[in-house]
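Feature request, filed as a ticket because there's no other form

It would be nice if the structure record came with a short human-readable summary line next to the C-alpha cells. Right now we just get the raw output. Example of a typical job, pasted below so the devs can see what we mean:
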Amino acid sequence: MTRPAPEVAPWRGRLVVLAGIVLVGLNLRIAVAAVSPILDVMRADVALTSAQIGLLGTIPVLSFALFGSLATPVARHLGLEPTMVVALVLSAAGEVLRAGATTAPAFLAWSMLALAGMGMGNVLLPPLVKRYFPDRIGPVTAAYSVCLSVSTAVPPLVALPLAQAAGWRWSVGVWAAVGLAAAVPWVVVIVRSVAARAHLRELVRRSSGPAVSVLAQPGGGGAMRLVWRSPLAWAMAVTFAMNSLGTYTVFAWLPEMLADAGLGTDAGGRWLALFAILGLPASLVAPVLTARMRSPFPLVVGFVACWAVGYAGLLLAPAHGTAVWMVLLGIGPSTFPILLALIGLRTATPALAVVLSGMVQGVGYAIAALGPIGVGLLYDATGSWDAPLLVLLGLLVVLLVAAWRACRPQVLGEQAGEPVDERAGEQVREPVREQVGGPDGAP
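Raw output as currently delivered:
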C-alpha cells in the first residue's frame, strides 16, 4: 500500500521572510507621521518657517515618487533583498541624523534621506511578496498593509508624550530602531541564500563594470518596455495616483479644515489619528478578497462611495456629524491595499512585478504630490474649502474610471505575443526552500 505524501506546511521555510515583510510594513510610514504632532515643540530648537513646514508635508510624496522609481534599477544591480537592506539602513540613518539637526535645511535634508529609504521599500515589498509568497499574495499583502496602517496611526499618538517626557530629538530618532530591526531578517535571508551570496561576490569582483548575472536583473529591458507600454499598468498608476492624492491631501489639510469649521486646533490631531487607523480593518480584508475575486472593482466602488460621502460631509456640515465623516474618510483610501495585491496578481513573474511596482508607485506618487500643493493654492485663491473639496470629489470619478480598467482580469506577461524577458525572471523561479536556506525549513 502506497503511503500518502506528507503535506507541505504552507509557511515552511518562509517565516523569516514573512517577519521581514511585516517589519518593513511597520517602518514605511513612521517618518511621515512622527513629526507633525511635535512641530510646536521642535520650533524652540529648529526655526521652521511656515513655508518649510509646508515643504515638510510635500517631501514624503516627492521622495516616494523619486526614490521609488530608483528602486527598480538599484534592485536590478544589487538584487531585491540587498536593496531592501540598503533602503532600511538609509531610513534609519535619516531618522537618527534629523534627530540631531540644528537647522531647518538640515532637518529637511535628513528627512528626505529617511523617506528615500521608505520610498524604495514601498516599491520592493510587492515583488518580494510575489517572489516568496506567490501562493499567498492576498494574506501576506493584507499583513503588511495592516502594518502600514499601524505605522501611520501610532506615531501621532505617542510622539507628543514622548517629546514632552524625553525631548523631541528622542521622539524623532527612536523610530530608527524599527528600520534596523526590519533589516535583520533580510540579512538572514541573504546569508542563508547561496545564490544571493554568489551574486554579492560577483558584484565585488565586477565593481569596475556593470553586473551581468541573471540574479542582478529582476527586471530586464523587455519587462520595462512591456510595463511602460501597458494600458493596464497606466490604469493602475492613475488609480494609485488619485487614491494617494486624496490621502495625502487629507493628511496635510484636515486639521486646518476642522479648525476653520470651529472645532479647535486640538481636534485635528485626534481626528487625523482616527483617519489613519480606520484603514486597518479594510487593509486586513481587502487584499484577501482581491485575490479571490475575478475583478475587485466592486470593492473599489464601495471605498470610493465612502470617500465621496466623507468629502460631501466636510463640504456641507463639517462641524456636525464629524465622527461619521472621519470614519468614511478613513475607509475610503482602502483602494491602496487592493492595488498592492494587484501588482503581484496581475504580473506573470516577480521580474515584471518589480518593474510594475516601480512604475505604478513612481508615477502615482509624483501625481499625488500635486494634491496638497494644489489644494493649498486653491484655498488661498478662494478663501474657502468648498472649491478644494469639489475638486477632490471630481477626482474620484477619475479614480473610478481608471480602477475599472486596472481591475480587469488580465495578467502582464501572459498575453500572446508580448515580449517578456524570461531570462530576467529565472532568478525568482527557484524553489523558496533553495533561496532561504534548505528543505529543512530554515530559516
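Something like this underneath would help us a lot:
The two ends are 35 Å apart (CA to CA).
Residues 1-9, 207-220, 416-443 have pLDDT under 50 and may be disordered.
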